[in-house]
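# nightly structure sweep
# worker-07 picked up a monomer target from the shared queue
# config: single-sequence mode, recycle default, output format = structure tokens
# input follows
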Amino acid sequence: MSRTAVKLAAAVAVAGLAVSACGTVQMGAAAITGNSRISSAALTSQVANLDAAYSSDQAKSVKPQRPPGQAAQQVLTWLILFRIYDEVATQHGISVTPAQSKAQIAGLTAQAAQNRLSLAEYVSAAGALPPDLIPQLGQYFAIESALARQIDGGKAPTTAAGQSQLQTAVGHDQCLAAKSLGVNVNPQYGVFDYGTYSVVLAPPTLAANPGPSPSASPIMTTPHC
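# output follows
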């Protein structure tokens, strides 16, 4: 399976507080990334798009691979990841062309066809991505591919160890970009987990059993890179 397919399959998907302190969420924002915001209205619109795609998928017996009832977290994850990779491109002087983004989309389209799915069905069911965001997905993968070429000098590693080292290096640069943006999610939607680079529902403040759940992974709210 290609790295793009693995990333897609893995990757996963308001009443703001009126405050003026540094790093807090602004009124009407679903999340803050650096000096920009992802508005609640934009998130709501894209959640509606994903919900519509899910309904269409299910009508065609295509089963979504992401947990149900978490469309807001799934979509916000993608919107934040796109901002992070735009920052990666800025930090590394990467500029991708429309042709490079379209080439990534063509690759995804071919993978979808192999699974007898349309591209819209493939990205929504496998990746919890609203089909309207397919162009942004193409740019995301084009930036990731350009970063990998920059790191390995255009010589794709052929061994498992080499591929692992490359993925670690790419992940480190992703972490640095996310750290520089200081991602801050409106608590209404959860928190940004730097361990998985996804928006997750925050655990309740109070619980009947205060001890840690053996099956739950700890949420990493600050980047370690």
